[in-house]
Design brief:
alpha/beta; Alpha-Beta Plaits; 8 helices; three-stranded mixed beta sheet; 8 strands
Length: about 200
Amino acid sequence: MRIRDVMTRDVLTVGPRDHVKHVGGLLTERGFAAVPVVDDGGRLVGMVAEADILRSRMPADPRLHLRRDQPVAEEPPPQTVADVMTSRVRSVDAGADVSDVATLLLEEKLRSVPVLDGGRLVGIVSRRDLLRALVRSDAAIAADLLALVEEYTGEPGTWDVTVRDGAAVITRRAGAADETEFRALVALARTVGGVVTVEVTRGG
């Protein structure tokens, strides 16, 4: 299964010239921890997170931190996203294997990563997106898998598909089949969201 099959396509983005306060409001309203930053051509140029906005924009209370003889700093905080964003961003390709991206998220302790296609932002994938693919109902998985098998073989009504806790069994009820077809069906089944293991058998 590829990332394009599970990613979130409707992605909130901001531009490098957007005001920091505006972006902070978006994060608060939408409940996001970070958003991608794209240029006018839709190319990813960074990420801006809650921590980036909070940094240097929460002034200290002078009643608690300053003595009367200390000068008061007047340096203004950063105003635009370009001033605070992280430019070096981990991203993944839309055609990447879901398993590889899950490993990346876990090993690097990331909550989400932008998804690119030809250098352009096309989505974002989070741990929740990956988990959602795993917890699909067995009935939904079986229906998708049966449709895929029948389309590939061109033999509707010839196959049975059962799924239990993500373990799929594909059974040919009639007609001949060879090992090449079985191997192809195993590979196809692994592209269906929620499939954990695959077995292909001959009925009877």
